[in-house]
């Protein structure tokens, strides 16, 4: 097995006086989809934001392709090949869909083949190509947010609850796009509450509780074991 | 061709298009359309202020940076020309050296302010610019042996740009060096304005707008936010300095009150807000309205007061001495009724 693309070793993160991450250890294998699971408020989003640099890790190591990233600014982490899709979508509402997509390709012009692929994966974006992103529906904004992160080929994608509050048809579109991304050999660390999406996409799973990782294993193993799910997350994921 | 010239940033409103065409025509033909020195002086001020306000809009409207040091950069450009003309004597070389050194000095100062303070929160950056601008104004006033202090500097510009240069008659108007000077200012302002329009519609401008909306998001895509903010500050400062140089060439005088005062800073802010932030064309409408009101409101009120002298109270209300009060009321009303500026309102009208 090749080296993991991302490794977190004993990472602690404080937000103001709160100790949110308390020794997070996790690995994201190369070319796989790793699900980051857990109840609300256990530190999943903070883990992604710490990897991206929005929150600074107080201690521990964040190794991306074997390189320590803790001291790198946010933009350097992005340029190193990490794409981030935040929970609040993070689109630029005053700009058009096209402008958002062009911004996504930060190291050069948007590759026409990639644009074609993305518009094939998210046809709604083509329809509203020249519209202001702020006027899109919630689902379209989410599509734009993911498509913008994919506008440039990145090695690792950190995606925070992409299907939250979306209609089933849009969730299917989203899942297909992520599946295609995985087929291209890209690695994904995905926070997802929708169990069917998690089961369909996840290769491995990392479960968090109280700011640290309490279980790591194959997604299939977690998906098949209801007792384990209830034990780890206090509920059966089938209920979601 | 025209669309390419304006970098594809069309006015997107028929009324706005008509207004812009009208303004461009009036400014292009000002010496032939309007009579008198005052009209030409107003037209030149409008050209310079359009450029100055547009350069501030690059900072405030497009990048979301609040700075109070814009008049400082304007003053640096103006003093650059004044000092070069004083020490090198009249000549185009002095104008060129003064303008280029003014712009370079503005870039260096903007770079220093930017690198030291653009990492901090917006309000601190605004305070730092205010402090630096005040310090520069005090220094200019104190170093009177160099800057002329409160009296300022009067200097000579190339004779070819003055009224003494008579070049015959064109379309019934005596074409003098003063008119040539006006066209120098008009063309330079137009070219620099179109350059700014090009910048805000370039990929660089798009990143600035993304930063304005959410700097972390822009950073998370891979853009060095501090670098972009600093670059915008430097570009804006250099353009403001060039506007200052043009002002100095036109006036043949610089002083703290005409180029460095905080009142000018407030005027620029008002022009940007009234015209419409983040639109560039807002700078055109804001500057035209403001300079016209500043120049002619008093006359207009004088005429109104005279016409209504038979009525009670009204002549006192519209007395020319109260022009500043009415200017204030006009601006409060325009900000109240056009919160997104005139351009924002006109474009929204078109969209609905």
Automatic annotation (TrEMBL), chain A:
Residues 6-235 form the ABC transporter domain. Keywords: Amino-acid transport, ATP-binding, Nucleotide-binding, Transport. InterPro entries: AAA+_ATPase, ABC_transporter-like_ATP-bd, ABC_transporter-like_CS, BCAA_Transport_ATP-bd_LivF, P-loop_NTPase. It comes from the Bacteria. GO terms for biological process: L-amino acid transport. The keyword Transport applies. GO terms for molecular function: ATP binding; ATP hydrolysis activity; branched-chain amino acid transmembrane transporter activity. The keyword Phosphoprotein does not apply. PANTHER family: ABC TRANSPORTER ATP-BINDING PROTEIN (PTHR43820:SF2), HIGH-AFFINITY BRANCHED-CHAIN AMINO ACID TRANSPORT ATP-BINDING PROTEIN LIVF (PTHR43820). Belongs to the ABC transporter superfamily. This is High-affinity branched-chain amino acid transport ATP-binding protein LivF. It comes from Falsiruegeria mediterranea M17.
Automatic annotation (TrEMBL), chain B:
One of its GO terms (molecular function) is branched-chain amino acid transmembrane transporter activity. CDD domains: TM_PBP1_LivM_like (cd06581). Its main location: membrane. It is found in: Cell membrane. The chain crosses the membrane at residues 15-34, 95-116, 122-140, 180-200, 226-254, 266-292, 323-344. One of its GO terms (cellular component) is plasma membrane. InterPro entries: ABC_transp_permease, LivM-like. It comes from the Bacteria. The keyword Cell membrane applies. This is High-affinity branched-chain amino acid transport system permease protein LivH. The lineage of its organism: Bacteria, Pseudomonadati, Pseudomonadota, Alphaproteobacteria, Rhodobacterales.
């Amino acid at each position: 097995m090749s080296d993991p693309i991302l490794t977190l070793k004993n990472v602690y993160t404080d937000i103001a006086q709160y100790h949110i991450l308390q020794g997070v250890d996790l690995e994201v294998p190369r070319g796989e989809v790793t699900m980051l699971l857990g109840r609300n408020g256990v530190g999943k989003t903070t883990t992604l934001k710490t990897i991206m640099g929005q929150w600074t890790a107080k201690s521990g190591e964040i190794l991306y392709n074997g390189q320590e990233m803790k001291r790198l600014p946010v933009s350097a982490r992005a340029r190193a090949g990490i794409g981030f899709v935040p929970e609040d979508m993070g689109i630029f509402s005053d700009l058009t869909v096209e402008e958002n997509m062009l911004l996504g390709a930060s190291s050069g012009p948007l590759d026409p083949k990639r644009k074609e692929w993305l518009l094939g994966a998210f046809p709604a974006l083509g329809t509203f190509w020249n519209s202001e992103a702020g006027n899109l529906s919630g689902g379209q904004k989410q599509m734009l947010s993911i498509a913008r992160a994919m506008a440039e080929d990145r090695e690792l994608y950190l995606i925070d609850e992409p299907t939250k509050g979306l209609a089933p048809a849009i969730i299917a579109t989203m899942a297909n796009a992520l599946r295609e991304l995985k087929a291209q050999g890209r690695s994904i660390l995905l926070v997802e509450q929708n169990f069917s999406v998690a089961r369909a996409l996840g290769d491995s799973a990392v479960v968090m509780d109280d700011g640290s990782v309490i279980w790591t294993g194959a997604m299939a193993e977690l998906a098949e074991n209801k007792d384990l799910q209830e034990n780890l997350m206090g509920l059966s994921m089938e209920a979601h | 061709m025209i669309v390419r010239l304006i970098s594809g940033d069309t006015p997107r409103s028929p009324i706005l298009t008509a207004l812009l065409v009208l303004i461009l025509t009036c400014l292009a033909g000002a010496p032939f359309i309007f009579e008198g020195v005052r009209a030409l002086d107003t037209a030149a001020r409008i050209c310079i202020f359009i450029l100055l306000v547009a350069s501030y809009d690059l900072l405030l409207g497009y990048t979301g940076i609040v700075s109070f040091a814009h008049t400082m950069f304007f003053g640096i450009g103006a003093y650059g020309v004044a000092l070069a003309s004083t020490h090198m004597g009249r000549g185009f070389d002095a104008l060129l050296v003064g303008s280029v050194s003014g712009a370079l000095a503005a870039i260096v100062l903007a770079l220093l302010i930017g690198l030291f303070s653009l990492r901090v929160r917006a309000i601190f950056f605004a305070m730092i610019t205010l402090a630096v601008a005040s310090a520069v104004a005090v220094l200019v006033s104190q170093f009177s042996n160099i800057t002329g202090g409160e009296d300022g500097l009067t200097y000579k510009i190339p004779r070819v740009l003055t009224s003494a240069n008579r070049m015959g008659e064109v379309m019934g108007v005596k074409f003098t060096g003063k008119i040539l000077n006006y066209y120098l200012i008009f063309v330079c302002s137009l070219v620099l304005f179109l350059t700014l329009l090009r910048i805000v519609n370039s990929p660089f401008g798009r990143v600035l707008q993304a930063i304005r909306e959410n700097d972390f998001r822009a950073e998370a895509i891979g853009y060095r936010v501090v670098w972009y903010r600093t670059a915008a500050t430097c570009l804006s400062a250099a353009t403001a300095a060039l506007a200052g140089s043009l002002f100095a060439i036109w006036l043949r005088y610089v002083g703290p009150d005409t180029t460095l005062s905080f009142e000018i800073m407030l005027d620029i802010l008002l022009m940007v807000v009234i015209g419409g932030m983040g639109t560039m064309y807002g700078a055109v409408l804001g500057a035209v309205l403001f300079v016209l009101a500043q120049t002619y409101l008093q006359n207009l009120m004088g005429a109104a007061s005279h016409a209504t002298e038979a009525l009670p109270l009204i002549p006192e209300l519209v007395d020319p001495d109260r022009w500043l009060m009415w200017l204030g009321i006009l601006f409060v009303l325009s900000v109240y009724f056009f919160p997104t500026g005139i351009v924002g309102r006109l474009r929204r009208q078109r969209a609905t």
